[in-house]
Amino acid sequence: MRIAVDAMGGDYAPNEIVKGAVQSAQKLKDVEIILVGDEKRVNSELSSIGDCPKNIRVHHASQVVGMDEPATTALRQKIDSSITKSVKLVANGEADAVVSAGHTGATVAACSMFLRSLKGVKRPGIAAAVPTHAGICTIIDVGANIKCKPDHLLQYARMASIVCKYTLKVEEPRVGLLNIGEEDVKGNELVKETFELLSHAPINFVGNVEGRDIFGGKLDVAVCDGFVGNILIKTIEGLSQSILKAFKTEASKTLLTRLGMSLCMPVWEGLWNKNDYTEYGGVLLLGVDGICIISHGSSDSKAIRSAIKETVQLGMHQVNKHIVSELETKASYVASA
Which one, of 69, 77, 75, 101, lies nearest residue 88 by Cα? Predict the structure, then answer.
């Protein structure tokens, strides 16, 4: 497997990106990692690390898309950016997957522009894994498409179900439609029309769900439009970090609470790791002809290692092949949408 890694994307690029890629290459001998970015800077980072694994190579890109730049404008004006050239490697058949901690909008735009959609897919969607006490809940879409139609949400539900089935080993993923209440009559027109489609789709649809149900163990997939999903995922991230930090602050106030904290350290570390985004690598752009992992902007080497590991697993399980097969086998549902 060949993975193009955007070496210039993210708050700590290229240092942490290169470090994570090298650590992955040392473990994954049968995977080729292509570091895309400023050749001099990337090679300098490789030299500072030491012996470069043979399964790493550098692909030069002279430009970088800044986090504050409009996505489409950046792509038009910076045709030699590390994001664009990473995606083009996949488009040209020189790589099988792309990993980037850079500009999310630019990554989605580049994949939409240069990679074909999978057969039968109308719009790509971003799926994010959220840890709960019952396991993992996959939320889709979390930002790729803020102007969704009911048939887009139908496809998101089906694609996310396939990811859960083959990568998380959930045989019949429970799919819920995010709404302001469980009753069928609630919600805007988009949600009401989507409810009808999902009710007759070849998935394990459990009906409308509320935001709190994501953590209650009632579902494996939560479906929503990209505007709602993006706000939701960022709220979850901020809240989980705030709660953990507040707990740590309170536990450090007195000698007695510090003693209690030390006794509970194994529990604390387990809870922290479960909610640590670096454990999950990034979010997955579903529906494009290639594997695309979009990592957190503040990704360190550990997060990049996790992203590369996740990419390899998606390739091994042939998730895109299963998505195409599923949509072709039951094409009548897509057509009716």
Answer: 75
The DSSP code for 6 is E
CATH homologous superfamily for the domain 1-121+287-317 = Isopropylmalate Dehydrogenase (3.40.718.10)
- Report the largest interatomic distance among the alpha carbons of the chain, rounded to a whole angstrom: 66
pLDDT tens digits along 178-190 = 999 988 888 899 9
Residues carrying CATH 3.40.718.10, the chain: 1-121+287-317, 126-279
**Model pTM score:** 0.89
Tell me phi and psi for residue 145, to 5 degrees.
Answer: -140, 105
Fold of 126-279: Isopropylmalate Dehydrogenase (3.40.718)
Query: What distance in Å separates the CA atoms of residue 156 and residue 223, rounded to the nearest whole number?
Result: 7
